[in-house]
Design brief:
With 218 residues, the chain is an all-alpha fold. It has one domain (11-25, 50-203). It has helices spanning 11-28, 33-46, 49-59, 64-80, 84-108, 128-147, 151-174, 180-199, 205-216.
Length: 218
């Protein structure tokens, strides 16, 4: 009998894929343009230099260089714990989400807000910073669940991760680096990749072979 390669429950993957495709289509045909512009205008009216400084500082923690450092830290912890399955999941998830978001930018070629942060280059949809922030939050969430047994401490850590994700993603819109739809698409895309890797790739025979191969080399 062949090993089952597909989901026993495809709901999450199908839901987020359909949602991302639908959202991306609406962005591409500019159905979000009016709403995005209105949100952008309202935010710009109420912004202050202090708000800009705060969110500029926050967004540094989801930059590419910071994300790589944090991901390396997570990977070292998983390696020290000899949790090879979780380490490979983290690697596949992080690379797929970050790399996928980069490729999608050049597929959709949505321009950034014109009056946003000076010096920004590249396209707007989806938001790379938002993808990295949510990826790191989800990986840290899994790490907290598997490492901290005290429920109160665990819940506090999860709440802080949630706040970090929300503030980091919101910062891209508040700073004028992205449209609201960019961050919304990023969230949906990350959850699609998360469930895809978690529910499908982890069940592929090559994944089990890779685990055994690494374990035999120890």
């Amino acid at each position: 009998m062949k090993k089952q390669l597909f989901l026993s429950n495809k709901v999450e993957v199908s839901f987020f894929l359909l949602l991302f495709v639908s959202l991306s289509f609406m962005v591409k045909v500019q159905l979000f343009t009016s709403f995005d512009s209105e949100v952008f205008t309202i935010i710009q009216e109420y912004k202050t230099p202090q708000i800009d400084d705060f969110f500029t500082f926050i967004t540094k923690f989801s930059s590419t260089s910071s994300a790589i450092v944090i991901f390396t830290f997570i990977s070292v912890i998983l390696y020290k714990r000899k949790d090879l399955k979780e380490l490979l999941f983290a690697l596949f998830f992080f690379v797929s989400a970050a790399g996928g978001a980069y490729i999608l930018k050049y597929i959709f070629v949505i321009p950034r807000p014109l009056s946003g942060i000076d010096g920004l280059s590249g396209y707007s949809y989806p938001s790379g910073h938002s993808v990295l922030a949510l990826c790191l939050s989800l990986l840290m969430y899994r790490l907290v669940l598997s490492s901290i047994k005290n429920r109160m401490i665990s819940n506090i850590c999860i709440m802080l991760l949630l706040i970090y994700a929300i503030v980091s993603i919101s910062a891209r819109v508040i700073l004028g680096a992205h449209w609201f739809s960019d961050t919304l698409g990023s969230i949906v895309f990350v959850f699609f990749i998360y469930h895809l890797i978690l529910e499908i790739m982890m069940k592929l025979p090559i994944y089990e072979k890779l685990i055994k191969m690494v374990e035999n080399d120890k």
